[in-house]
Amino acid sequence: MTEASTPLKTDAFKVACSSCNLRELCLPVGLDRPDLERLDALVSTRRSVARGDTLFRAGDAFESLYAVRTGFFKTCVSSEDGRDQVTGFQMAGELLGLDGISADRHSCDAVALEDSQVCVIQYNQLETLSREFTDLQHQFHKIMSREIVRDHGVMLLLGSMRAEERLAAFLLNLTQRLQARGFSSSSLILRMTREEIGSYLGLKLETVSRTFSKFQDEGLLEVKQRQIRILNQEGLQQLINGAGSTC
Amino acid sequence: MTEASTPLKTDAFKVACSSCNLRELCLPVGLDRPDLERLDALVSTRRSVARGDTLFRAGDAFESLYAVRTGFFKTCVSSEDGRDQVTGFQMAGELLGLDGISADRHSCDAVALEDSQVCVIQYNQLETLSREFTDLQHQFHKIMSREIVRDHGVMLLLGSMRAEERLAAFLLNLTQRLQARGFSSSSLILRMTREEIGSYLGLKLETVSRTFSKFQDEGLLEVKQRQIRILNQEGLQQLINGAGSTC
DNA sequence: CGTGCCGTTGATTAGCCTCAAGGAGGGTGG
DNA sequence: CCACCCTCCTTGAGGCTAATCAACGGCACG
User: Fold this and answer.
1) Which residue in B183, B191, B181, B174 sits closest to B233, CA to CA?
2) Straight-line distance from CA A158 to C1' D16, in Å?
3) How many other C-beta atoms can be found within 10 angstroms of the C-beta atom of residue A81?
4) Mind telling me which residue stretches traverse the membrane in this protein (chains A, B) (predicted)?
5) Which one of A142, A148, A196 makes the best mutation probe of the B interface by having the most chain B beta carbons within 10 Å?
6) Average pLDDT score over residue span A178-191
């Protein structure tokens, strides 16, 4: 079980943060030119992960963080009794593996939902480098903190929202992140199954499916399997903010 | 609303991490003697927070982290429409304020549930100092990562557990943390209301109350208002791990 | 000795889950 | 190229869990 964690397919060629088109979204945010070039030394290799394969598993030794370069991931935790929970979906520019720092061992699985590439960031090198320059240190802390804030948002969602609100919030969050990456804000293709969405949102897949259908009936969405077109963004937003606040 | 965040009651006297009895639980974990003494310079002041007062509020400018010295806190986030979610309960040795790093502004409220004292850790000084010595840097990262892992655990709870399982998990987590601080593992006094427990667990206060009563009927607990005695710890544990796994 | 907050308990309801059946799409092998 | 299979998705019927609404008891505090 805890043995060889998927064959490492480490591509030999280098990738430079300084010339990466994700540098405004990823770890290098806010770094100036000279710092950026020093970061290139840190992010030395790329790794490809085929759809369905795991980047790391709970229990694996922690050595590196991973920045998604292309593709799409989910992370999930599971309890001893086999309960499973998707804790997040990660797209280009987002960091994977922060959970591993706490115990030098990953505490969740990271699975590619489509063929993907990640930049491998040796964690001990990151610590070393961030001792040398402030901006990188600060940026890294911000990223960890942002993950905490995001998690709190998910708790709010799971703890106090109803099914429709959860799905609406989920879709709006997805489109917002896609928009920041230059994609359409009204049309998207889901990379995950209904069951994975349900796990993330604390719902069963049937409920997710029904809620999609309901949104479609109400003219909020057009749903064709995994192709989603948002017809009424404000309508979705209103679902979240005070369902019936006409006062 | 966003004006003066509760009158600062900064006690003038210093407190030394190097002589603090929480140093095995708090930020200084794993630091050796010389490092510890340098940390004393960082943690310069203590602040008292009366029961019911806020340590910081969402929207407040972020400047410091806080280590709970004595007392008990809750943190909660709220959405625009007034929905409210308790995201955690913090006791002695635990850090508050990590959410603020991401946007230089706190994103949740921290409220004292009993008269409390915190150590004030100037964040920019912490960054400076952790650039100078590795162990502090590493320890700080571990603490942030641990918070992320904890949050994932809460997501699992909120996303996939039933009321009884949630409350059982909550009680076991509390007693475990109390035990690590030298308190009894079988007897505790809740610092929070049923409503706050409910908010944290994604349940209504009536459900929390009913579940307490049920546990009492089943002989798992003795419940007298906020005084809880655990009569059958294994029974609670079994509730979480595979409710009915006799196979 | 009131007053207000907190907790308990009951009756009813709503929302989501469970179980079940069937359809659509994509990939594979004949 | 088609038949087949498998996975994923949709939809319906019925049941269960937890929410809601409501009333009351107890404790702390002024």
Assistant:
1) B174
2) 20
3) 12
4) none
5) A148
6) 96
* pTM over 0.90, yes/no: yes
Residue B10: phi, psi to the nearest 5? -90, 115
Question: Checking DSSP bridges between strand B43-49 and strand B10-11, what pairing results, if any?
Answer: antiparallel
Tell me the three state secondary structure of residue B38.
helix
Among A157, A177, A196, identify where a domain stops. A157
CB < 8 Å from A in window 159-178 of B: 159-161
Q: How far apart are CA B192 and CA B208, in angstroms?
A: 12
**Chains A–B, number of C-beta pairs less than 8 Å apart:** 160
Q: Is residue B94 domain-resident?
A: yes
Among B156, B152, B131, B153, which Cα is nearest to B141's? B131
A149 and A182 share a domain? Answer: no
Instruction: Read off the pLDDT band of A34 (50, 70, 90).
Output: confident
Cα–Cα distance for residue pair B199/B202, rounded to 1 Å: 5
Shared domain for B40 and B103, answered yes or no, is yes
Q: CA of B70 vs C1' of C29, distance in Å?
A: 70
When the pLDDT of each residue in chain B is averaged and rounded to a whole number, the result is 91
Q: Which amino acid is at B82?
A: G
Rounded to whole angstroms, the Cα distance separating A148 from B98 reads 8
Can you give the residue range of the structural domain that contains B230?
161-240
Nearest to A158 among B142, B148, B159 (CB): B159
Instruction: Quote the minimal CA–CA distance from B78 to chain A in Å.
Output: 8
